[in-house]
Design brief:
It is a single chain. The protein is of the alpha/beta class. The protein is built from 15 helices and 25 strands. The protein has helices at 7-15, 31-47, 64-75, 89-99, 108-116, 142-147, 183-194, 216-229, 241-250, 260-267, 272-275, 291-301, 417-424, 461-469, 497-513, and strands at residues 20-24, 27-30, 55-59, 79-82, 103-106, 126-129, 140-141, 163-168, 178-182, 206-209, 232-235, 255-258, 281-284, 305-310, 317-320, 334-335, 340-344, 357-362, 384-392, 398-403, 408-410, 413-415, 430-440, 444-453, 480-483. Strand 24 (444-453), helix 14 and strand 25 form a beta-alpha-beta unit. Helix 2 (31-47) packs across helix 3, helix 7 (183-194) packs across helix 8 (216-229) and helix 10 crosses helix 12. It starts with 6 loop residues before the first helix and ends with a helix.
Length: 515
């Protein structure tokens, strides 16, 4: 394998040319076929006049076109900018402008959004439509361009420290920032995960790829790991608990890479037991997996779900309960091979035993800072402060407390939202909950609970607060409760607390002005 991430496809094609690389609907695409298509994409993009380092935005679903364009962009020495397929025109064009992408490969609807804001995107030169969509006026069909790409050799593109992926953070607590991931960082994390024993993945595995490939979790631990080992990726365009269970059983899936909402949904289904018969490894990340769902899957479906922790900036895996003696609820396990972690206080000193501290990370998998100037990257000693607060339990397993920036300061006391949310979810009428801090003239901040109530349940503000008072110190209890039909979520199920805080502050401002 070389130092360009796209070399993984070339290596898999050389070792297993006739083995399935991708399964999609009724298609079976071999590694040799994928390698050839990646070459055509690279030739096409270079034929458009793009030069090393130019950005190619990619807004497609979990389809073979996404895979081919992703690796083809990297093989051409260009930079991939994966974008959420659910973005509005404003969101999409904001990131296209920020990245300075010269080409975007999008769905038919995405292409329409981009073309509608063409005048706002001076760097953009081409709009290509993938996934078999029809190209509107001003755009070009990806398939048409690939057909005329020719057969000339693709020049070898560098890798290593060169920028490979510019991927925007979810923006759960502010404006999305572009994390600059080099070939080195992405390959390093694949190598680190592959050193876990027993092996997380082998060439004989079939991996369910239902997590969005535009998200770092689906992109590198999912698609990247499949290519690293020459395994088979089963592409699913959307998560439906019944349909994905059928896919798992139909294709004898052996590895499931998921997020908590997926496992929660599966844990509620009575027929999950048989469907998971072929699964040898199930992993979860991006948010905490509720303990009751983990236990239901263990007891009813007969599978152990291993939780992990990571960030976009770490490419992404940092810890996993696969490294623990015994996986347990509410733990993110221990660091994977090749990664160092330490917990530090506000002065940057390591905390004493059992004390919570900010989780800092060091390893070859770290990003190169934020776009465009590399600001906010690892410090001079190679450490990156994650912004997450954690502690080590008696077994030396790490447990997350909360995001440092989501810490709520009530009268000078630290309040961690996750602790409150755990208590809220113990209320029999509450199905989902988030705790946020809102400005308070007397205590600096106050706790606001935003909850989703089970249909038909009678839940009142007073009842919620009283319930919390039974388990929490008074300063930790919500002073206000908001009832909503649903909470806003990001692509992998993480609650967008920044959106909740903005709405709460706007409501406060409106109330204060008498509006």
């Amino acid at each position: 394998m070389g130092d360009n991430l796209a070399d993984l496809v070339r290596s898999a094609a050389g070792a297993r040319p006739d083995s399935a690389a991708l399964l999609f609907r009724d298609q079976r695409i071999t590694w040799a076929e994928l390698h050839a298509r990646v070459d055509r994409v690279a030739r096409t993009l270079l034929g458009l006049g793009l030069e090393p380092g130019d950005r190619v935005a990619l807004q497609l679903g979990n389809t073979p076109d996404f895979v081919a364009v992703y690796f083809g962009t990297l093989r051409a020495g260009l930079v991939t900018v994966p974008l959420n397929t659910g973005y509005t025109s404003r969101e999409l064009c904001s990131l296209l402008a920020d990245s300075g992408a010269r080409v975007v490969v999008a769905t038919e609807s995405g292409a329409g959004l981009v073309l509608g804001a063409w005048d706002e995107l001076p760097a953009l030169e081409r709009v290509l439509v993938g996934d078999g969509g029809s190209a509107p006026a001003g755009a070009h069909g990806l398939e048409d361009l690939l057909a005329s790409a020719g057969d000339s050799p693709v020049p070898h593109a560098a890798g290593g420290e060169d920028l490979a992926v510019l991927i925007y953070t979810s923006g759960t607590s502010g404006t999305p920032k572009g994390a600059m991931l080099s070939h080195r960082a992405l390959l390093a994390n694949l190598e680190q995960v592959s050193r876990i024993e027993p092996p997380v993945l082998t060439s004989d595995d079939v991996v369910l790829l239902v997590l969005p490939l535009f998200h770092i979790y689906g992109l590198n631990p999912g698609l990247g790991m499949a290519a690293y080992h020459g395994a088979t990726g089963l592409l699913a365009e959307r998560f439906d608990p019944y349909e994905t269970l059928e896919l798992i059983a139909q294709h004898a899936v052996t590895s499931v890479i998921g997020a908590p909402p997926m496992y929660v949904a599966w844990s509620m289904l009575s027929d999950a037991t048989g469907a998971f018969a072929s699964v040898r490894l199930a992993t979860s990340g991006s948010a905490p997996l509720p303990a009751d769902a983990l236990l239901r899957l263990r007891e009813d479906a007969g599978i152990e779900v291993y939780e992990g922790y990571g960030l976009t900036e770490t490419a992404p895996v940092v810890t996993t309960t696969l490294m623990s003696d015994v996986p347990k609820p509410d733990s993110i396990g221990r660091p994977i091979p090749g990664i160092e972690v330490k917990l530090v206080d506000e002065e940057g000193d390591e905390v004493e035993e059992d004390d919570p501290g900010e989780l800092t990370v060091r390893g070859r998998n770290l990003f190169s800072g934020y776009w465009p100037d590399g600001a906010g990257g690892p410090d001079d000693d190679g450490w990156f402060a994650t912004g997450d607060v954690a502690y080590a339990d008696d077994d030396d397993d790490l447990c997350l407390v909360d995001r440092r920036q989501e810490l709520i300061l009530v009268s000078g006391f630290n309040v961690y939202p996750r602790e409150i949310e755990a208590v809220l979810l113990e209320h029999p009428g509450i199905t989902e909950a988030a705790a946020i801090g809102i400005p308070d003239p007397y205590t600096g901040e106050a706790v606001r609970a935003v909850v989703v109530v089970e249909p038909g349940a009678l839940v009142t503000t007073e009842g919620v607060i009283t319930h919390c008072e039974l388990s929490l110190a008074r300063f930790k209890c919500p002073s206000t409760v908001e009832f909503v039909a649903e909470l806003p979520h990001g692509a992998t199920g993480k609650v967008r607390k920044g959106q909740l805080r903005a709405a709460a502050e706007a409501a406060q401002a409106a109330a204060g002005s008498g509006a």
